[in-house]
Write a structure and sequence with these properties.
Distance between the termini: 30 Å
Order of helices and strands: HHHHHHHHHHH
Strand content: under 5%
Largest sheet: none
Helix content: over 70%
Shape: globular
Number of domains: 1
Number of helices: 11
Length: 267
């Protein structure tokens, strides 16, 4: 219970520190909401024919991609950047020397990701429904899939971000994280229709979690007939869950085996 209480205190502290980092708040929390708004306005004319008739609108078309990108930004990117910075500036070394249990530190990070991911998702859904005429599904099964994909996406993104933080120093981690993330967003169906991506790039994207999170989100919000645009011609909900779970387990193993409290060359 002491570790749990300290983990809660650490979560509150992490949220306070996160809210004061304007760049992190913008590029991880607000960025998907801003892009959804911009894309919905810019491309609205291309979807007007189907709007109001049960067809696709710009807001609906881009919303699953923004939700999936948001999951990776608030989990993977936040963890990779913040932990690499804390390792290099000595924060982790100082925390390691305190009586605070190590588990409390990680509970704080998990709490940060959990709170920001949920808040961002709720805000995305509210913006989409209030300002861009997105009609949310009423089928409980679709929402069950949403919770499954969201939960596994946050879990895998968090543990992979913690493991990834060991690859570089704080000076280079930004490029090491943001560059690959940007490429994956383009080839995973976040910004453009996935069936417009060349087949060989679809296969590359299928190796990584983002493609599966985006596909899972599309299965929740898109009409059933649009599953024909996926690689397998179906939503593959079961396979999506298994791939994300496998990535989460792999990331957890990497966290346990590679996490370092100190910079290279220090003890």
């Amino acid at each position: 219970m002491n570790a749990l209480a300290l983990g809660l205190d650490r979560t509150i502290l992490e949220l306070k520190m996160y809210s004061r980092e304007k760049e992190s708040v913008f590029f991880s929390f607000l960025f998907p909401i801003l892009l959804l708004s911009l894309f919905s306005v810019i491309f609205s004319a291309q979807f007007q024919e189907g709007a109001g008739q049960g067809g696709m609108t710009a807001g609906l078309f881009f919303m699953p991609g923004m939700l999936s990108a948001g999951v990776l930004l608030t989990s993977f990117q936040t963890m990779a950047l913040s932990i690499a910075t804390e390792r290099d500036d000595g924060t982790l070394k100082r925390l390691r020397a305190t009586p605070m249990p190590s588990v409390a530190y990680f509970l704080g990070k998990v709490g940060l990701v959990g709170v920001t991911s949920v808040l961002q998702t709720v805000l995305l859904l509210v913006v989409a429904t209030l300002f861009f005429d997105v009609v949310l599904p009423t089928d409980p099964e679709r929402w069950a899939v949403f919770v499954l994909v969201f939960g596994l996406g946050v879990f895998s993104g968090t543990v992979l971000g913690i493991a990834y933080s060991s690859l570089a120093t704080s000076r280079s981690i930004g490029a090491v994280v943001i560059g690959p993330m940007l490429v994956l967003q383009f080839i995973s169906g976040v910004y453009i229709a996935f069936d417009d991506v060349p087949t060989w790039l679809q296969q590359v994207a299928a190796i990584f979690p983002l493609k599966w999170i985006a596909q899972g989100m599309r299965s929740v919000f898109f009409p059933a007939e649009m599953a024909a645009g996926e690689m397998a011609g179906s939503w593959e909900t079961g396979k999506t869950a298994l791939v994300l779970l496998a990535w989460g387990i792999a990331g957890l193993v990497l966290c346990i085996t590679t996490f370092r409290w100190f910079k290279r060359g220090t003890t």
